[in-house]
Amino acid sequence: MKRLFFTLSVLLVASMFLAACGPAPTAVATEAPATAAPATEASATEAPVVDTTALCASDAGGCAVFAAGAPIKIGFAGPMSGDVSAFGIDASQGIDIAFTDAGAFEGHAFVQDPQDDQASPEVGATVAQLFASDPTVVGVVGHLFSGATNAAMPIYEAAFLPMVSPSATGISLTQQGNTVFNRVVGNDKFQGALAANFVFTNLGLKKLAIVHDGGTYGLGLAERTREVFTELGGEVVAFQGIETGGTDYNAVLADVASNSPDALFFGGYTGEAAVIRNQMAGAGMAGATFVSDDGIYGSQFVELAGANSAGVYATSAGRPAGSTAVSEFDAKFLDAYGVATGSLSPYSWYSYTSAMVLVEAIRKVGVAGADGNLYIPRAALVAAVRATSGYQGLIGEITCDPTGECGTGGFAVYGVQTGSWVELAPDYTP
Q: What is the pTM of this model?
């Protein structure tokens, strides 16, 4: 009995030992029964549906509404005819390239509505009324000239239409408490100082006569140039205004010439500048150097002044620093329009950047509704443009301050040499 019990015990222990040393038993997979996720959980990973009715009702300017596939319209206002049409044409072409590069937003392409404001405050206000009355216009690139810009600003303010100007440099434009006006170019505080320093330091001339066209831009720039030139120790021997659109300024020029200036600075635009330059010699200022501003920069002044354009100087917005983006834009511009950037004006790069600032702001505030429409809240867009910060444009980094100054203030001096404008080195001397 004991032997049997012992034998059975040994067998039992052996079987336990073999079981412990053998492969682990295979687990049988058991799945929890599939259950449908609640609808609220499924939508948690999706973009929340915006109540566009509430959005637009809460926005002080309401919403611009675009049906599926309808283009987003951005106005452009600048001179497209007359003595300064090159500025408007150049800027409009830059905008077209910008909108091609921008592509679509929520299935909506960006398009420009170009309008000729003739560089006139009166026509500028009319164009502004046109844009303000169009429910499909959400912003404006422009205006280009300070006088037209100044006249348009109150109209856009009331309509919640943000403006981004590539070229309106008048100092007072950002001193009015206007919420819609912004610019990517510097202002005439910098440009006037540069002109004064160039005449006094680079050219070494100490007696300066100043003539201006009496406008927001021309007069403001002339005053700033006078201020800085006097601070430097120079003498402003004459300060006179002219009527725009004139063809004979001999009387004014003869009066200015009686003061024997070394140089004549003109604050204004191409048409009047060309007339003045062509009449300086006959008025007794053949030896005086003619200096002006970005209002005359471009091929049109050279054409109108002809041989008298040689040796003329002008301050203007600086060309952008070299980069891949700038090179690509320049190539696209030349291919599309057959002229090099910077030949008509310096503002194709600036208008491209202005347009892109608006595009980026629209992308931030635009909302695709559940009904298939696109909603752009107008007051929110105005605020988004003014809040632009760190945007890398063709002309450098764009960051807007609370007044709408978004540019770096960079200007350069150009001279007409062999029929073309050439940017001069900061230490240039004749």
A: 0.86
